[in-house]
C-alpha cells in the first residue's frame, strides 16, 4: 500500500476506533437506541470511506501492475479477484 494512502487511512481508523469505544459506552449506559443507531450509521459511513481508499489503492497498484504485466494469467487472476470483490460489495 502506498504510504500516502496509509497516511490518509490511519487517522480515519483511529477516529473510527474512538467512535466504536463511544458506542460501546453508550450501550453500557443504556442510552437511547436511536442515538446508538445514529452513531453506528456514522461508523459504517466512515468505514466505507476507508474501504474506498483501500480499493482505489488496490486498483492503482496491484491491479494496474498485473494488467501491465506480460503474464496473462496474473492479469486474469486480478480481474477475477476484482470481480469477486465487487460482487460482495453489491450484496451489502
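-> sequence recovered:
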Amino acid at each position: 500500500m502506498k504510504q500516502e494512502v496509509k497516511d490518509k487511512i490511519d487517522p480515519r481508523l483511529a477516529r473510527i476506533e474512538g467512535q466504536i469505544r463511544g458506542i460501546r459506552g453508550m450501550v453500557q449506559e443504556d442510552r437511547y437506541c436511536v442515538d446508538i443507531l445514529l452513531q453506528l450509521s456514522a461508523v459504517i459511513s466512515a468505514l466505507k470511506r476507508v474501504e474506498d481508499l483501500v480499493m482505489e489503492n488496490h486498483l492503482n497498484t496491484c491491479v494496474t501492475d498485473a494488467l501491465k504485466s506480460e503474464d496473462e494469467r496474473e492479469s486474469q487472476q486480478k480481474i477475477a479477484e476484482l470481480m469477486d470483490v465487487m460482487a460482495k460489495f453489491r450484496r451489502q
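The radius of gyration is 18 Å.
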